[in-house]
Amino acid sequence: MIKPPRTSDDDRRVAGVELISDSQHHDQVLRAVSEARVSVWIGTANVKDIHLEAPIGTRARARGEYLSITERLTELVRRKVQVRILHGALPSRPFRESLGRSPELVPPRFEMRHCPRVHLKMIAVDGAYLYLGSANFTGAGLGAKGEGRRNFELGVATDDDVLLDVTQARFERIWTGRECGNCRLRSECPAPLDALPARPPKSAPKRPRRTPPRG
Questions:
Q1: Mean pLDDT for the chain?
Q2: Distances from the Cα of 45 to the Cαs of 120, 134, 141, 150, in angstroms?
């Protein structure tokens, strides 16, 4: 349970967080993503084709089938949710192939940007739920793998205003290329983000107040 923020005796600010470990990344973090109403911002070092159990009540679920994460992302885009993925390494071939079969995952609702220096792992949902931790956007990190196969992962989830604002501002700064000018690896970057066509600036999503998913 996420506890409300408080102030300590020496006036340092303390934020309420919930520890997320191992299978909770699939059960809680991806559930928060699925329930998004406004936006999903994902920062990850690696992007792979996460496979998820088919929805309950479907024939695919009865057959024990797993569906690509791109189908879940397509559902979000259809609900007019903004999805951004900021990644450090090139997406895996299976993810690229799955993305190629998903004609609705295109700008402006769905966008991906590559920065080789990105190693942060974060997911911000609706400006109201934030995950920070070790898990990449991969099957081993977030997927429905069985015990003994998934990665050992740890992170925290919070709905704290300040942590959300600071994290989303950091994401936006990288996303819009404002870190590119002084980057010492610019010569090695295949496509500096500050060289992309200019678009109207967008502020970080503001939260529609809601209770973050709980286990």
A1: 86
A2: 6, 10, 11, 17
